[in-house]
Amino acid sequence: MHDPRQCVAGAPIFAGLPDPIIAQIAAISTHQQPVRKGELLYAAGTTADRLLVVDSGRVKVFRTAADGTEQIMYFLAGHAVDSEAALFMDVEHQNSAVATEDARVCSIRRDDFRTLVANTPQLAVNLLSAFGSRLTTLENRSAGLGTLTAHARLLRYLEDTGARLRTDYFRLPMSKRDLAGWLSITPETLSRNLKRLVREGRIEMQGQMVRLL
């Protein structure tokens, strides 16, 4: 059975918030909205005005190139969260999202969330505290990357990307050359270690698409 509080608490931006605050956020949320296979959740260029949680089913997030070619960015499933930034700023969707099977989606509208924050100062304090903890964790993790081998650094990056997107199947968010630069390794080293991870059974890879195993 769907639990609105657990649904809200599962969103990374709300991790660590006390139960009373989670209950208040759950009260302004919409839950278990049915989305049919083939139905668009949002289109590139439209206003991103709500956080989304794919509670069941599967959603494909993609980008359409100028020549009409579709580029799959990542998939959302199993309580995956999308469009977190929409709660805090006025932005447009850079990608489009379509249900690849019947799904149920939960959401929190930005206007409702901002009203709650304005009327509940403690929520703002708790959010800042939670963000501070996450930032500290991220900084510590980034500092630790410098001591890892290229192989371990690449695996950590892929695992962190999957955790951030809350999916085990996603498109690399940058070109392999840019990824090599991001990890401070050469493109040749990146290529060797991607092949090694495939041989070790850690990942499957086809083009830019990665599946964590």
Q: In words, what does this structure look like?
A:
The protein is of the alpha+beta class. The protein has two domains: 4-143, Jelly Rolls, CATH 2.60.120; 148-212, Orthogonal Bundle (Arc Repressor Mutant, subunit A), CATH 1.10.10.10. Helices cover 40% and strands 28% of the residues. It has seven helices and 13 strands. The chain has helices spanning 4-9, 19-27, 110-119, 121-145, 150-165, 176-182, 187-199, and strands spanning 30-35, 40-42, 47-48, 50-56, 58-64, 70-77, 80-82, 91-92, 96-99, 103-109, 169-171, 203-206, 209-212. It has a four-stranded antiparallel β-sheet with strand order 1-10-4-7. Strands 2-9-5-6 form a four-stranded antiparallel β-sheet, with no helix packed on it. A three-stranded antiparallel β-sheet has the order 11-13-12. A hairpin with a 5-residue loop joins strand 5 (58-64) and strand 6. Helix 3 packs across helix 4 (121-145), helix 5 (150-165) crosses helix 7 (187-199) and helix 6 crosses helix 7 (187-199). The longest helix has 25 residues, at 121-145. It is globular, with a radius of gyration of 19 Å. It starts with a helix and ends with a strand.
What does the secondary structure layout of this molecule look like, with pairings?
Layout (H helix, E strand, L loop, with lengths): L3 H6 L9 H9 L2 E6 L4 E3 L4 E2 L1 E7 L1 E7 L5 E8 L2 E3 L8 E2 L3 E4 L3 E7 H10 L1 H25 L4 H16 L3 E3 L4 H7 L4 H13 L3 E4 L2 E4 L1
Helix pairs in contact: 3-4, 5-7, 6-7
Keywords: DNA-binding, Transcription, Transcription regulation
Protein name: FNR-like transcriptional regulator
Pfam families: cNMP_binding, HTH_Crp_2
